[in-house]
Specification:
The structure holds 2 protein chains of 2 kinds.
Chain A: E1 3-15, E2 20-32, E3 36-40, H1 47-54, E4 62-67, E5 70-71, H2 77-87, E6 88-91, H3 103-113, H4 118-131, H5 147-158, E7 165-169, H6 177-192, E8 196-200, H7 204-209, E9 212-217, E10 220-225
Parallel strand pairs in A: 3-8, 3-9, 6-7, 7-8
Antiparallel strand pairs in A: 1-2, 1-4, 4-5, 9-10
Helix pairs in contact in A: 3-4, 3-5, 4-5, 5-6
Chain B: H1 2-12, H2 14-49, E1 56-60, H3 75-84, E2 88-103, E3 106-115, E4 123-128, E5 136-139, H4 141-147, E6 154-158, E7 160-162, E8 167-169, E9 172-182, E10 191-195, H5 196-203, E11 213-218, H6 224-234, E12 238-242, H7 243-253, H8 255-286, H9 288-296, H10 301-338, H11 355-381, H12 385-394
Parallel strand pairs in B: 3-10, 5-9
Antiparallel strand pairs in B: 1-11, 1-12, 2-3, 2-6, 2-11, 4-9, 5-10, 6-9, 7-8
Helix pairs in contact in B: 1-10, 2-7, 2-8, 2-10, 2-11, 8-10, 8-11, 9-12, 10-11
Classes of the chains: A alpha/beta, B alpha+beta.
Chain lengths: 229, 395
């Protein structure tokens, strides 16, 4: 396998009034294509900051992050936005679907942005919603869906442009245990189908489902393990 | 997709959107009315002057038409001179005078125009026939109402009244040949048109071969400056007022109207702008999380801005279109009130609808809608993604 993501000595400081908060203090990490990686650790250890950097929605204070061989820290706003659109899928803890759009329209949004034709968008969104077992809910608005269903729509949206990297920040954090388990199964299925998945989680079940677990504390990686490996 | 998103965002809070559209519509109506007021009266006056094709008015030196009792002498000679010019198509001599309709011991005073029925440009016949015979007249509705007369009736009309002797002079029996609408007279003003020669005879030696005004129509309007120049040399005791001259004088007198309408129009534009800005800003602030997520999943800053600007534009355009209808209704109502303004021709419209005025109002408000959405849109699209997402999650 080859490295899809390569982070080298990444630091991220957030300036406050008098002193900076050092969210990441020199993190180096490689994620191979097709890997299923969970980042775990206590609150405030920097795992979400690391995920934001891996997803190119934030830039490191120092260090480099390469995704598919491109140093995303050097890209301009327009380029990095386009990079996120075509190469990265995001799943958020609070789903963040657009409430004014149906499930199908939410899934089609990134494709429309990428210039995919209407017919192709329709075909792809149908396929994705079927993949996440929501074929019968395409016209429903987020408010008409349960939390688990909303998260599945969000996963379908994240997969819309066939990203090479799927990032999820506490994807089961807002769900009950049973619904959370459905999402964990779905991530397992995505991994089995070849998607590279990186999740940040407090959920032990989700972490156990991953093939590799990175433990963080105080802005650094303290353990990188392959359970059962 | 952006339009779908923009419209869906507006539908999300229907009551607020409807109220905002109503507000913009009222601002648009006021703006349209002000644009119509600033240009309408002038244009209406121009159209009135040119309604019968007469491009020039000749008056006694130093006067405006009918603003004094002054008259032009040797009217026949002047008429002949004017008609001899090849550029001149039609000459209409007009004499203005007050006459009295005698009814037993009382009388009703009315304004009379002595005209050449073949060349007149003062009225439009509505019923009956023209006053081509010497002892006939044409009357307007107000006159017929006041005298309770009708077409075909004969009236005793005198041109003069001596208050000491309480006697009338220049009395004639005239038959009402027709009913007409007088173009240049104020609303409610009683008026008759009498053949010029008859009125001159009735008014006696003082008005013999005199007129108050000539209206002149040229075959080619572009010849007005040349003919004006000739007239000023050949007829030194007469003032020549072209339509352009008249418009210049109207412009001077309408300066206050234009200033007032410009100020009120600007106020309504600012109100519309602030309304849309407020609504778009509130709407954007409510959706910061959504906007940041859109950016995070790869929607470009430009497209986010476009979507929000579209929302402002949709509000403005809808409000402006509704406001155009509202503006036309209010303009019609206000016009009926202002058309009773004393001393102005009833045919003058204060609020003359011109497509250009409507397009100006809609265009200005649309531009406001675009500008109103631009700042909040750019601000929202430029928010730092990671920290805003974190704040939203905490919130």
């Amino acid at each position: 396998m080859s490295a899809l993501v390569r982070a080298r000595d990444v630091r991220r400081d957030y300036p406050l009034e008098r002193e900076a908060v050092h969210a990441l203090r020199g993190v180096s990490l490689e994620v191979e294509k097709g890997e299923y990686l969970a980042i775990v650790g206590p609150s405030g250890c920097g795992k979400s900051s690391l995920l934001n950097l891996l997803g190119a929605i934030d830039a490191p204070t120092s260090g480099t992050i390469e995704i598919e061989g491109r140093n995303v820290g050097t890209l301009g706003d327009r380029e990095v936005t386009d990079f996120r659109l075509r190469h990265i899928g995001f799943v958020f803890q609070r789903f963040y679907l657009l409430p004014i759009l149906s499930a199908r329209e939410n899934v089609e949004l990134p494709m429309a942005e990428a210039g995919v034709s209407a017919a192709e968008r329709r075909e792809r969104s149908t396929e994705l919603l079927r993949y996440v077992d929501l074929a019968d809910r395409v016209k429903h608005r987020p408010a008409q869906l349960s939390g688990g269903e909303q998260q599945r729509v969000a996963i379908a949206r994240a997969l819309a442009n066939r990203p090479s990297l799927l990032l999820a920040d506490e994807p089961t954090g807002e769900l009950d245990a049973k619904t959370g388990q459905e999402i964990i199964s779905l991530f397992g299925r995505l991994h089995a189908d070849g998607t590279t998945v990186v999740v940040v989680t407090h959920d032990e079940n989700l972490a156990r489902a991953a093939r590799r677990v990175v433990h963080m504390r105080d802005g650094v990686i303290v353990q990188d393990e392959v359970p059962g490996g | 997709m952006r339009l779908v998103l923009a419209l869906a965002s507006l539908r999300r809070n229907r009551a607020r959107t409807i109220l905002a559209v109503c507000g913009v519509a009222i601002a648009a109506a006021m703006l349209l009315d002000m644009v119509m007021l600033s240009t309408g009266m002038r244009e209406s006056f121009r159209q009135l002057l040119l309604s019968r094709g007469f491009q020039m008015r000749l008056t006694p030196r130093g006067t405006m038409p009918f603003d004094t009792e002054a008259t032009i002498t040797a009217a026949s000679d002047v008429t002949a001179k004017l008609r001899a010019r090849p550029e001149v198509d039609l000459v209409s001599p007009v004499l203005g005078a007050s006459v009295h309709v005698l009814r037993g011991d009382s009388s009703i005073t009315t304004f009379a125009l002595g005209v050449d029925p073949q060349a007149q440009g003062d009225y439009q016949l509505a019923a009956g026939r023209d006053a081509t015979e010497p002892n006939t007249l044409i009357a307007n509705d107000d006159f017929l109402r006041a005298t309770r007369a009708k077409v075909g009736d004969t009236l005793r009309i005198a041109s003069g009244f001596d208050p000491q002797l309480r006697t009338h002079s220049g009395e004639r029996a005239l038959v009402i040949a027709g009913r007409a609408k007088f173009l240049y007279l104020a609303s409610g003003q009683l008026a008759v048109a009498i053949p010029l020669r008859t009125l001159q005879e009735m008014t006696g030696a003082a008005r013999e071969d005199r007129v108050s005004l000539f209206m002149v129509r040229l075959r080619d309007a572009s010849k007005v400056p040349d003919v004006t120049k000739w007239m000023r040399t050949a007829l030194p005791t007469i003032d020549v007022i072209s339509t352009a001259d008249a418009m210049a004088r109207v412009d001077e007198r309408l300066g206050y109207f234009r200033q007032l309408s410009a100020i009120l129009g600007a106020v309504s534009l600012v109100v519309g702008f602030l309304l849309v800005t407020t609504l778009v800003t509130v709407s954007v602030n409510e959706r910061v999380g959504e906007i940041v997520v859109m950016r995070a999943i790869g929607v470009s800053k430009a497209h986010v801005v476009q979507q929000i600007v579209l929302e402002g534009t949709a509000l403005s355009v809808t409000g402006a279109v509704l406001g155009t209808g509202l503006g036309l209704i209010t303009a019609r109502y206000l016009n009926t009130i202002l058309s009773r303004f004393p001393g102005l021709p009833a045919a003058i419209d204060f609020f003359l609808f011109q497509p250009r005025a409507a397009w100006t109002a809609i265009g200005l408000l649309t531009a406001c809608g675009v500008l109103a959405g631009l700042y909040p849109a750019w601000r929202a699209a430029s928010l730092p993604l990671a920290s805003t997402l974190r704040e939203e999650a905490v919130a």
